Amino acid sequence: MARRQERAAGSGRWLPWLGFALLPLAVPPAAAPGGCPSACYCVATPELVQCRYERLEEPPKELPVTVHNLSIAGSNLSVLPRAAFAARPLPDLRLLRLRHDNIHTIEDMALQGLPALRTLDLSHNPLLSVAAGAFDGVPLLRTLQLNQALLAAPLEDQLALAIRNLSLRRLELAGNALRALPASLLPAGLEELDLRNNSLQRLVAAELRSLDAPGLRGLRLTLGANPLSCDCALRPFLAWLRSAAVARVPDARSLRCAAPPALRGAVLLRLRPEGLVCVDAEGGEPGRLETASYVFFGIVLALIGIVFLMVLYLNRRGIKRWLHNLREACRDQMEGYHYRYEQDADPRCSSAGTPGL
Question: What residues does the LRRCT domain cover (predicted)?
Answer without folding.
Answer: 226-279
